[in-house]
Design goal:
The protein has 267 residues and is an alpha+beta fold. 66% of the residues lie in helices and 8% in strands.
Length: 267
């Protein structure tokens, strides 16, 4: 175990160098600059648009309408970004938002989100990932984990077939013990932030629960166990949203009183 102090020292130096706080007050490891993340987001969005067919017309206008309403509720710095929206022709019920101000929605998700409020739940969740710097944190955690495994390999002299088996076991432990739970934590945090964000934009936060009930029905119960997944189970997500609903409804009522009443007809 002589390598443990080396791992601890490497982890400590990384933590001291780039320790930030998420919007919910959780400590984060963020090694990349916002400029780097924005550039990576722009590149990823451009590549995805090159590789995947997009659709325009009424569906694009619908997604843009909901996104614009959510963006108007963002903090000033995020609101001032030039947010871009694309709708991709894919039956997969998926969506994403990228650093730099990019939102992508698949047509498959538009079939599951039954109205503007349910779509706002998706967009609020995805934009919450960006606001909470989850892409930065995820990349930084992977970097730190790989550094730790490299230090272990070098310091302990793990070589040959036995060493490879040991490193594979350590890698599996890192995957299920650090990286996957970390991603599930991101998803739960984006759920709580996103439901408040959609409410502040004037969308009914109760639609977030209806959306996940729709997602659960469309999945037909086919999902990996929660411990082996990058996402919480549908039941866990619904439970978390129900726990956050009181605060979200208060924000929703205040938004409506201030005249935030989005009207984005579903095509």
């Amino acid at each position: 175990m002589r390598w443990l102090p080396l791992v601890a020292a490497a982890a400590l130096s990384l933590s001291l160098a780039a320790c930030t706080t998420s919007p919910t007050g959780r400590s984060q490891l963020t090694l990349m600059s916002e400029q780097q993340l924005d550039q990576m987001g722009a590149q990823a969005f451009a590549q995805y648009r090159r590789e995947q067919p997009t659709v325009g017309g009424a569906r694009l206008r619908y997604v843009e309408c909901v996104t614009d309403a959510v963006v108007r509720a963002l903090p000033e710095r995020a609101r001032q970004q030039n947010w871009q929206v694309a709708v991709f022709a894919s039956e997969q019920a998926n969506a994403f938002a990228l650093p730099g101000g990019y939102v992508g929605i698949n047509t498959g998700l538009l079939q599951i989100a039954a109205n503007q409020d349910q779509l706002a739940a998706v967009i609020g969740h995805e934009i919450a990932h960006v606001l909470a710097r989850h892409a930065n944190e995820r990349a930084s955690t992977q970097t730190a984990t790989q550094l730790g495994l490299s230090v272990i390999s070098s310091a302990s002299g793990l070589q040959g077939a036995g060493g490879e088996t040991m490193m594979a076991a350590l890698g599996m432990g890192a995957q299920y013990g650090i990286l996957l739970p970390f991603s599930r934590r991101h998803e739960s945090e984006a759920d709580s932030l996103g439901v408040n964000l959609m409410a502040e934009a004037g969308f009914d936060p109760r639609a977030s629960i209806a959306l996940w009930e729709n997602m659960q029905a469309s999945a037909g119960g086919a999902s990996p166990p929660a411990w082996a997944s990058t996402h919480p189970s549908h039941g866990q997500r619904i439970g978390g949203l129900e726990a956050a609903m009181g605060e979200a409804l208060r924000r929703y009522e205040r938004a409506r009183q201030r005249g935030r009443t989005p009207n984005c007809p579903r095509p």
